[in-house]
Amino acid sequence: MDRWYWCGSSLTAGEVVCTTANGIRLYDGDKRTGYDDGHLTLTNHRLLWRHESQSSSLGLHLSLVVLVEDEAGGFTSSPKLLLHLAQPPHSKPAGPVAASSNSFIKLSFRQGGCSSFQQALQNAIGERDWEKVVIPSLPASHGKQSGGKTIHTGILGIERAIQAKQEETNQNISHAFEDLKNLMGLAKDMVFLSKSISNKIKEHSGEVSVDDTTRFRSYLLSLGIDDPVTRETYGSATQYHHHLAKEISQALEEPVKEVGGVMLLSEVYCRINRARGLQLLSPEDVMHACHLMKKFDLSLNLHTFESGVQVVQTAGLDQDKVVETTVETLKSHEVDGVSAGDLARECGMPLLLAQERLLQAERCAKAVRDESSEGLRFFPNLFFSRS
């Protein structure tokens, strides 16, 4: 409320009425004040609030309004406009409150008209008509005449400097996006070049070492997918998911083999989106595509454990061999047993996948569990091996 000041009801030079509203209550921050059921007038320079029992009005200059927000009304509350305000100038005329800890006020519209008044207020703030004339009633800034132009300082000068800075920032952002488009175009050329080099390596495999070939393939994978499958390319969702399944299988075949032939579906989702760059996939599209892998006999397929955990694994992965590998790890820790965390650290796999492997070994009667205060640990099933 310290931004309001006492003033007369007459308009200043160049000031015109934009709109009015009745039944307006003023708030200081979230605190209700005694200024209730007044008549609010919006001009192109100020907000004027006056009660019919008062001869003078309360004025608020629009140059102090930084942001306008609306607050919807409820069953027992009226719609409101929330006005964030800048600090008042030292030369501001006296008002109803000398100082306030709040940097915003609220206007409560008890008789409606909040939406139309907000639109008119935002238009008036955007026009900034008060900058076009000198306002003697509110000396917020001192002007110097030079060549018929008014040079503004103080609050108005700061606001204009901020506006100019914002316009410059917007231009810089626009140039940055243009540079990004050029970079994307160059990236496609780089991927095409890398593919041609990869083909040459395949044709002359005898002249290139295995380490060089492996390293170069890792470079290709980091470049991503040059022409990702999109919905716009294919007419139906079935065709889209079919080609998407092929893309995922081709892109992640080597990474899946490198982690032991099994990868959590959540990791598949993250890796394929990282490889596709800006053409991101939804979880539903990745799920549908992975369900089609086995149908089209691809190098990867989707597998669901009894607990519901889903993974993508290499086609033809021998589950019995996976169980035997897990059992071998259990036998090497026959005394203390193995927890899911131990298996994950030793085999370099996610914790969830390590737990599923231990449970799978238990379901095959190759492992037994021990639950204690130290947690859940698994041991090799010696009863099964001796029977």
From TrEMBL:
Please indicate if the UniProt record lists Ubl conjugation as a keyword. Answer: no
Give every GLUE N-terminal domain span: 1-137
Biological process (GO) annotations held by this record are: protein transport to vacuole involved in ubiquitin-dependent protein catabolic process via the multivesicular body sorting pathway
Per UniProt, what is one Pfam family of this protein? EAP30
One GO MF term attached to the UniProt entry:
phosphatidylinositol-3-phosphate binding
Task: Print the keywords alphabetically.
Answer: Cytoplasm, Endosome, Protein transport, Transport
Q: What is this protein called?
A: Vacuolar protein-sorting-associated protein 36
Query: Which intervals of the chain form a coiled coil?
Result: none
Compartments in which it is found: Cytoplasm; Endosome
Q: What is its main location?
A: cytoplasm
Subunit structure, per the record?
A: Component of the endosomal sorting complex required for transport II (ESCRT-II).
- GO CC entries: ESCRT II complex; late endosome membrane
Similarity comment: Belongs to the VPS36 family.
**Protein function:** Component of the ESCRT-II complex (endosomal sorting complex required for transport II), which is required for multivesicular body (MVB) formation and sorting of endosomal cargo proteins into MVBs.
